[in-house]
Amino acid sequence: MNHHDSTDAVLNPTNLQAQQLSYAVSGKTILSDINFCLERGQVLGVLGPNGAGKTSLLKMLSGQTASHGQVSWRGKALNAYSPLERARQIAVVNQLNENVFALNLQQIVRMGWLPHKTLLSRETKQDHQHLATSIAKVGLSDKTEQTFSSLSGGEQQRGLIARALVQKAALIVLDEPVNHLDIYYQHQILKLLRTLAHQQQITVVMSLHDINLAASYCDHLCILDNGKMAAQGSVENVLQASMLEHVFKIPCQIRRDDVTHNLRVDFYPPNELEARRQPEIVQFPQPNTSDRRDYS
Amino acid sequence: MINKWSALLVLAFLSPVIGIFFGAAELSPTELYQCFVADCATPVNTLIFWEIRLPRVLVGFLVGAGLAVAGATLQNITRNGLADPYLFGVVSGAGLGASIATLLFDSQIGETLNLFGMLPNVSFSLALPVAAFLGAAFAVTLVQALAATSFGGRGENMLLAGVAVSFMLSALSHFLLFLGDPFAANKVIFWLMGSLARVEMWYAWIMLPVVMGSVMLLLLFGRRLDALLLGDENAKTLGVNVTAIRLMALAICAALTACIVAYCGGIGFVGLLIPHIVRRWVGVTSRALIMGCVLVGGSFMVLVDIVARSALSEQEIPIGIITSAIGSVFFLLALRQRQT
Predict the structure, then answer these.
(1) Residue A121, SS3?
(2) Could you report the per-residue pLDDT of B61-115, keeping only the tens digit for each?
(3) Sorted alphabetically, which InterPro entries does this protein's record hold (chain B) (predicted)?
(4) Can you list the domains of chain A with their CATH numbers?
């Protein structure tokens, strides 16, 4: 873990850095001893079982919750930014579960202007152009006048990503962006985020449930287990069957996909894998790791 | 969009003009025109035009605009389309303040107390709106405190807390009126109904700066108020100081409602009805909503006042009765619409 001061940050591409993060709510530890660095334009996937602390970690990284330890963004501690300065750099995409007064897509997306506007400043021609291109980038140009709640889940998610683009954020933090979406939209959203990250050098941090989706679209993975970092690093380094079985409490195997050549994790119902490994003991299988290689 | 706005402007201009034609005394259009451009033909006409008709129309417009804007703002900051200064306890809070002021400054009890020098030497006309504002602010604080603690802060619960506070404060002011001398009670009874009957020109000079100031502030903070529609957490990530904005908006609602309720009583449901119509017709973002509420709310109140003045030939109906009758039906319709 390197320490950077602000002059270093210009030379060093490290953008987002977490040092010794910990977080507790009324005595209960939610996160402890989290450290990592993320370079500019990279996609970080945060994985882990329910209650592992994914949402808490995202909230700290976006400055929504204070924590022990330090998060720094571009070489400056996150809590040294004013809320407005932070909003100019960091966009948060949370699920929008209430839309009471039927705002349309464009009205939601243009709220991204907010951190860049004073009370009196007007909306310029460039603002409107930027708004239009941002909506075009997520492929929703023909739906600008539609009520936000009438859009499909995938379109809503893309709309919120467009808002982050309007916000001109260099870091986009997303809490489970593909939850409740069908497979088509899951891939569409993640591909969009990956493209934005790699083409526009936007850093993306998101929590995901599907390890294989994360493996296909993220550059960097963090696996959280009970508030601790179980593993982190590149996809190739992180995906280890023993670690995943320990964290997710479910048997798995790792293989390389024939088409994409990405690593894939196959999870099996508890007992199923062992049952097949040792067909003679069906009811109470004993896990036997030495057998695993034969079936992989 | 431009057509809609020009239609609204025409409506906002025409309704006061129509309002001036109606009244107990029969003034011909030529006489009224004469009053407006030059001097009235007779002193009676001068009195009717300048002392009765014009103040009534102007104050009516300001009352409608102010209540609609207060309602729209309350709805936006609570993210609940059923919020209204009347349902929210703001009106009954202002009523309580007004009742206390009436008892202290304008009755036997007040004079007795004043003998001991316990009250500041201010005129009743100033004390009334100030007391009403304090009462309204008290109600808002109470609702906020209730909603923030055991009710979990959900919009729905905030509304229910508002209804409870509303009843509590009404009970208090009724009790005070019951204790007070009969003349004071008679004076205060019109708050409970809401009426434009006693309107005088100087009411307009008090309401105008409050309504204009509030509208300007709300327009200035329009984008930030819009962000509140996304939910507090989302608004915070856009750099909005949610607590401060909400507090400011609540203070504005309290001020608007107080200066209206202090002089014209509790005219209910305008703050619920008008924003709904405006959202449908003009738009949901704060700046369009607020401007729309000023124009539609003002026109609506002036037009309803015409009905209040001319429906019964012998006497006029307190306008609050009419707006509550219209509004309560509308409230039920809005409730049903939410469920489907």
Answers:
(1) coil
(2) 999 999 999 999 998 888 888 888 887 888 888 888 888 887 777 655 555 555 5
(3) ABC_BtuC-like, ABC_transptr_permease_BtuC
(4) 6-249 (3.40.50.300), 250-296 (no CATH)
Q: How many CB atoms lie within 10 A of CB A112?
A: 24
Q: Contact at 8 Å (CB) between A120 and B287?
A: no
Per 3-state DSSP, what percentage of chain B is helix, strand, and coil (rounded to 5)? 80, 0, 20
In whole angstroms, what is the distance from residue B23 CA to residue B163 CA? 36
Greatest alpha-carbon pair distance for chain B in Å reads 65
List the single residue in B236, B237, B279 with the smallest CB-CB distance to A101. Answer: B279
Tens-place pLDDT, residues A168-211: 999 999 999 988 788 988 998 899 999 999 999 999 999 999 99
Going by the DSSP 8-state scheme, the letter that residue A73 receives in this structure is E
Half-sphere CA count of B302, side-chain side, radius 13 A? 28
Q: Which of B218, B238, B241, B248 to mutate to test the interface with A (most CBs of A within 10 A)?
A: B238
Give the gap in angstroms from C-alpha A280 to the nearest C-alpha of chain B: 55
Token digits for B317? 């109906």
CB B81 to CB A94 under 8 A?
no
Contact across the interface for A64 and B241, Cβ inside 8 Å: no
**Cα separation of the two ends of chain B:** 28
Q: What is the pLDDT of residues A212-270, one digit of tens each?
A: 999 999 999 999 998 899 999 999 899 988 899 889 888 888 999 888 888 899 988 87
Query: And the tokens for B112?
Result: 């007795």
Could you read off the pLDDT of B135-152 as tens digits, one per residue?
888 988 888 777 766 555
Say whether A98 and B279 touch across the interface (CB within 8 A): no
The residue with tokens 């529609």 is B229
8 Å CB contact between B282 and B4 = yes
Hey, where are the domains in chain B? 2-339
**Rounded to an integer, what distance in angstroms lies between the CA atom of residue A155 and that of residue B126?**
55
Q: Token pair for residue B32?
A: 């009224």
Which residues in chain A touch residue B230, judged by CB atoms under 8 angstroms apart?
A: 96, 108, 111
Q: Quick check: helix, strand or coil at residue A99?
A: coil
Q: In angstroms, what is the C-alpha Rg of chain B?
A: 20
Quote the minimal CA–CA distance from B21 to chain A in Å.
38
* CB B55, CB B204: distance < 8 Å: yes
Cross-chain residue pair A87–B237, CB shorter than 8 Å: yes
Provide ipTM, 2 decimals.
0.80
Are residues A148 and A98 in contact, defined by beta-carbon separation less than 8 angstroms?
no
A92 closest CB neighbour out of B76, B221, B237: B237
Q: Which fold has domain B2-339?
A: ABC transporter involved in vitamin B12 uptake, BtuC (1.10.3470)
Query: Across the interface, which of A94, A100, A115 has its CB nearest the CB of B229?
Result: A100
Alpha helices (runs of H) in A50-124, residue ranges in sequence order: 54-61, 83-89, 105-109
Looking at the complex, report in whole angstroms how far the Cα of residue B80 sits from the nearest Cα belonging to chain A: 7
Selected for mutation to probe chain A from B1, B217, B219, B237 (highest A CB count within 10 Å) is: B237
- CB-nearest to A119 from B76, B221, B238 is B221
A101 CA: distance to closest CA in chain B (Å): 6
